């Protein structure tokens, strides 16, 4: 009879555990009350506040056994509201903000428009404000400005002989600190807040965030160890690079972000444009790339003096279409002797594709033997005609870019080199800028070194590539490392930083200081970050 008693007791205990004790059997610890089958804290339980079953309303909490509005809110007409942000009860009950205003910190204010944020009582565009870039209170360092919520320089110059990058603030033309970067950056481009720098020494396409010029965020191979990446052309999501030594067009695609935070580029195609073609630059019209072919002396320039057309309707399968010869143009030889077009750069506009012609005699120390010229290509039929830029203002047309409805051409000029002093230019003529409107030169700007050539310590300036930012040309000096700033107006070129006109706001920028160990300071390229 006594054997089954213990199991029966265990079953009874288990049954009580599963079903809960009846109310009269619940024993609670001190400070808790029995509500139903549970022990609750009547002083802080929102479902049983002060007494069992007394539930607090929305927005209330149980405080010392009494239902009250939660901290940060107060009761207005029996409803708990956040008076710091409620437009109907802003700062106090019943204080309604006028239509179109918002309640911030208990004060009615004009609403900030889309894309702005309230910073210190003002509506600030955190995508563009250098003192509040990306977030309130985040100020951009040195001369950087705010680009889409990220701090970056407006303009970046590559110093080839110094191995540095230097940033410039557009408008004020203030220089930032110089940063060592790569081994021999030859050409620049920009994309989505990054500077793309083609390094010929290391045969790599390097990337740096636009505000961190000394830090490589990503590097991508440019193939051969020996390379000369003459131009980088961005056409999202693709980047095109031409190599004038290996005669190639390389295509990279953005797949990022990369591990280092860069764009995440990957080479997806590469084609050879032909032996001894020496491609120099890239312009794009529709789905066709226009690539100036300079040619090589070893092949007597037979494969140059032309423009290759490459179909990139599928950028991952580029296809060379044909080659447009430039040798049929009237190059206006000075003495009826040898002169070759030797194209150097190109740009595409609504009116067609324009190619800068250096117009040199390669058999006479590459001296100009005709005026600097543009070749205008009609993409519809491939027709080519020449535009004479005028020998007085322009020799050796080297770089062209569209600025609004006009074209700006950089003329490298006729430089006389001091061979005994490391090929430094000791004199130069017809170097500077020419403005072209409706295919007619309308204005020019002559580059001046600010000293008398030939005098002790005077370094002449030789125009190179340029970038356009806020309507101004930032023109690189390939001999003395300066950057000249020239405002582009309708039919006018107005010097802002230089030595030509007394009205200039200051001297040219010493972007790439001269190294005493080297005779030349080559500011080789410039790019602008949008």
TrEMBL record:
A matching Pfam family: Stig1
Keyword terms, alphabetized: Signal
PANTHER family linked to this entry: STIGMA-SPECIFIC STIG1-LIKE PROTEIN 3, STIGMA-SPECIFIC STIG1-LIKE PROTEIN 4
Protein name: Lipoprotein
Gene source species: Pyxidicoccus parkwayensis
